[in-house]
């Protein structure tokens, strides 16, 4: 097993623990979860920027702020979805990010969408219909919020793509928790929920596992190409389904399983095709 794959496994496991902790504290307001998560992330970001000697303010401040704000919207929607939808469903829908990113690249960067891209999109769309269309247990509003979270996350990825030409990665990461604290922090202080020691511990774990997941995700792509770790990436969906069954007694119907398989397969085929096209060029 290569170092890249090992690092991706660590990243996926860390993020899966974060998802589990968010699901386990429905009594804690979302704004407070995001505030504490951002505070912990900001501490790590400041330390890394100081040790690297990087100017934290960057060059394109408008795009950096915009990226942070759409990231905040995505995080609110994602955490809401984790708490209100079956864990496996929420994580699967969040993996639709590449399809939204592809659409935006076609609209704003004039990149061509080929026939096979449309085919992969239709596979994923069929999976979405199977998950929601035939499942009365899933509320439409909750499902749409989950989809919007994927869309906002794709917007954030798209902006990161634009910013990488002018900004250091650490600066892009730094802006997110900083802006989140500036926007959400004051509201959280005015509407503070006093967590018990168990909720407080889980909140700290959320912040810690988020940072670990981001660090090892970055390291994985330093050692391995995207295609080399894509198979491992979908282990996160399996873990989320297992966690949902063990800890929250979430039993998914057959059509939901089929939907998860279709979405995972569509995204996997899309990523493999993209890697193949790069090798041919």
Account of the 3D structure:
This protein has 281 residues and is mainly alpha-helical. It has one domain (3-280). It has helices spanning 3-24, 30-52, 61-84, 87-94, 97-108, 115-133, 140-163, 169-190, 197-223, 226-233, 235-248, 254-280. Helix 1 runs antiparallel to helix 9 and helix 4 (87-94) runs parallel beside helix 12 (254-280). It is globular. The two termini are 28 Å apart. The mean pLDDT is 84.
Question: Strands, helices and their partners?
Answer:
Elements: H1 3-24, H2 30-52, H3 61-84, H4 87-94, H5 97-108, H6 115-133, H7 140-163, H8 169-190, H9 197-223, H10 226-233, H11 235-248, H12 254-280
Helix pairs in contact: 1-3, 1-9, 1-10, 1-11, 2-8, 2-9, 3-4, 3-7, 3-8, 4-11, 4-12, 5-7, 6-12, 10-12
* Biggest pleated sheet: none
Mean pLDDT: 84
Gyration radius, in Å? 19 Å
How many angstroms does the end-to-end distance come to?
A: 28 Å
Helix content: over 70%
Q: How many structural domains in the coordinates?
A: 1
Q: How big a fraction of the residues is strand?
A: under 5%
Q: Could you list the spans in which at least 5 consecutive residues all have pLDDT below 50?
A: none
In short:
The chain is mainly α and 281 residues long. The protein has 12 helices and no strands. α1 (3-24) runs parallel beside α10 and α3 (61-84) packs antiparallel against α7 (140-163).
Labels describing this entry:
single chain; 281 residues; mainly alpha
């Amino acid at each position: 097993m290569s170092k890249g794959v090992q690092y991706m496994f660590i990243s996926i496991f860390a993020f899966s623990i974060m998802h589990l902790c968010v699901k386990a504290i429905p009594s804690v307001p979302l704004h407070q979860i995001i505030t504490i998560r951002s505070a912990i992330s900001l501490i790590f970001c400041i330390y890394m920027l100081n040790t690297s000697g990087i100017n934290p303010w960057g060059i394109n401040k408008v795009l950096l702020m915009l990226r942070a704000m759409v990231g905040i919207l995505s995080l609110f929607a994602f955490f809401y979805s984790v708490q209100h939808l079956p864990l496996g469903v929420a994580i699967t829908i969040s993996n639709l990010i590449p399809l939204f990113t592809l659409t935006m690249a076609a609209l704003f960067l004039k990149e061509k969408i080929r026939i096979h891209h449309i085919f992969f999109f239709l596979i994923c769309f069929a999976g979405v219909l199977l998950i929601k269309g035939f499942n009365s247990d899933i509320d439409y509003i909750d499902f749409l919020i989950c989809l919007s979270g994927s869309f906002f996350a794709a917007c954030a990825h798209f902006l990161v793509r634009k910013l990488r030409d002018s900004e250091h990665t650490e600066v892009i990461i730094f802006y997110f928790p900083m802006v989140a604290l500036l926007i959400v922090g004051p509201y959280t202080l005015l509407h503070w929920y006093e967590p018990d020691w168990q909720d407080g511990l889980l909140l700290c774990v959320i912040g810690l596992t988020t940072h670990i997941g981001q660090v090892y995700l970055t390291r994985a792509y330093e050692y391995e190409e995207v295609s080399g770790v894509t198979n491992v990436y979908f282990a996160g969906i399996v873990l989320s389904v297992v966690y949902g069954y063990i800890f929250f007694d979430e039993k998914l119907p057959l059509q939901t399983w089929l939907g998860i398989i279709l979405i995972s397969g569509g995204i996997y085929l899309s990523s493999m095709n993209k890697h193949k096209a790069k090798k041919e060029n």
